Amino acid sequence: MRADERGGAPVGVDFSALYDEHPEYVARRATGTFEQVRIDIEVRLFKLPQLMCLLPAGRDLASVLEIGCATGELVAAVPVQRLGRKIGVDISAANVAVARARFPQVEFRCGDFRDNCQETFDAVIMSDVLEHVPDDEAFLRDAAALGETVLVNLPLEVNWLNRHRAFGPDDVSGHLRRYSLAQGLALFERAGLEVTAFAQVWVHETATEPALRALRRERFGARYSGGWPQRVIKHAVVAAAAAVPAIGRRLFASNLFAAARKRPSL
Fold first, then answer.
1. pLDDT tens digits for range 134-186
2. What is the CATH number of domain 15-202+254-262?
3. Residues 188, 194, 197, 203, Cα dihedral to 10°
4. Given CB 3.0 to 4.6 Å as the disulfide criterion, which of 75, 102, 174, 261 pairs with 66?
């Protein structure tokens, strides 16, 4: 599929409808569902702490824009100054409607950020977004133009468990490509940005994974991982990853958390 001239959705693909109807997002919109609680845990224990620690010590944000905010959990949790401003934008009208109802203290807009965000912000956030857009370089460049700092969470999926995954328009999660750490950092370079801080983080090495396992046990019982042979294998893999970090880091995907700014003109 070819992308349109702005580097947006491939011609013939209505991504707003796609994410309106995607089962994961449908589940996130319902109060108290597993998917809604799961994303709350990921934001609280993983995404928000990792993104905020990229900012200089003592830096207080007065204005924040999140692009691709989905149902709004991350932008709602970002700390800002008293009377500070937070805006979330997403192409899914269904996601935006739920975000507005759940987080009325945040302003949400529906559509392409390049059409309805003309102001500038202290920080522009994109979490799990760039892997979904055809022209990641142009998208990142356009987003960074709206902020003093751009904060990005990018999955790094060059790992053993994703070795045979067919990335592209038909991927179950909508990931059009996968990145290594080097490829993720090179994306900022191509977009004309200077990375000021970054970290590669494996979720299984954080408090997030035990919290998610506890949630799955609570909601689905002991058999959430399948029958006993599957559970034995999975427990052995997790134990090996914990005992030998080098194995876990090759086996599982990680995330690149990066802060960047427009490169100064010479």
1. 999 999 999 999 999 999 999 999 999 999 999 998 888 889 999 999 999 99
2. 3.40.50.150
3. 0
4. 75
